[in-house]
What we know:
The protein is an alpha/beta fold. The protein contains 13 helices and 18 strands.
Amino acid sequence: xxxxxxLGTGMAGMGAAYRLHxxxxxxxxxxxxxxxxxxxxxxxxxxxxxxxxxxxxxxxxERVQGLLAxxxxxxxxxxxxxxxxxxxxxxPLHPVQLHLHxxxxxxxxxxxxxxxxxxxxxxxxxxxxxxxxxxxSFGRTFxxxxxxxxxxxxxxxxxxxxxxxxxGPRMYRPSLEEIVRGAVSASAPQKHYITNFRYPTQGGFVxxxxxxxxxxxxxxxxxxxxxxxxxxxxxxxNGLVTGYDGLVSSxxxxxxxxxxxxxxxxxVAAAQRLxxxxxxxxxxGVSRADLSPGQITYFYDEDLTxxxxxxxxxxxxANAPNGTGSIQAEVYFSSKYKPLxxxxxxxxxxxxxxxxxxxxxxxxxxxxxxxxxxxxxxxIIFDLERAEALKTVHAYLDEVGIAYCGRYGDWxxxxxxxxxxSGERAAGQALEKLxxxx
Length: 438
């Protein structure tokens, strides 16, 4: 039986284990943490369950839908999505471009007039980056007030420094009729790529992985420090050195390349150019459940600490004690554009201050829990250096026979189903390499 090693035990790592198990192979699964799950992990503090970010499953892939449902014995919540926005004291529905109703009249007029002017411009705007796409799609006023501002908060760089490779269905481009209808009516239809989602009834998002853990030989608390693709060996901080026949990695590419001593200088330099946000998750338990009408809210004001809020108790009632509510705030940094210069705990009080400022925590509310969790790698930044740098790194890993997967191996914007399928695909590539070698 081939000795195939999988680095990482998140959704991608489990996808690899699932694929290998189907071929009769039980891989060794290494994780640096004392727990499995990677970014799919869930934690309970003072009775409040928090995932590592707002994880929900909205896949349209029927096979993956079935796999996830079976993984929790069909015990999941099916929730109608309800998203909200906050901008300068206003709470427009999502997406904002379809729900201008209630915003200041001068803003609405300027948004519509700019949209019309862009639509009827005699010269079509050349799209070289995300800013160009926003201006061409929405006109300058809306682009600058909303998505361009949000980009600086979420991606920690400017829209002019980003490509459009990540967009897909994430930004809805409306017609003039849709914009006008949403401006004059409070009952304009909501249009979003997510309409409903599923979430495990018990145990948080990590519950989706529980049945897949036995598919591999799990080795927790193993911090990888070196990879030798020529000798096919892995070295860990605890002194273990082990070999492999095939290797599947979901380790973030900058870290992985940094652990390969024989990596060429141009590959090392390319890996260092890859950008990703760092996120401080601030988790808050509150003595009241009716905190928000929506499960997720986006915040555009740059003077507010957080970029996005989610409310875990609205995903499953088991995520919080009866009669209480929970808030998870996302505060973004990046080593490349906006370095984190304080401890995660230093972010807690500014977040609570701003939760009070926007009215989500009221004077009579008791804070039952507050804590912070650092995600060193959060969201891939699709800056203008990404494509070329990634091409160099992936070509090298293909050459030395390391199959990569997941958000930080593929270095892409991946949802749950995409990460799982990415792991399956990488495992298939590792198997093909072994067959070719034999």
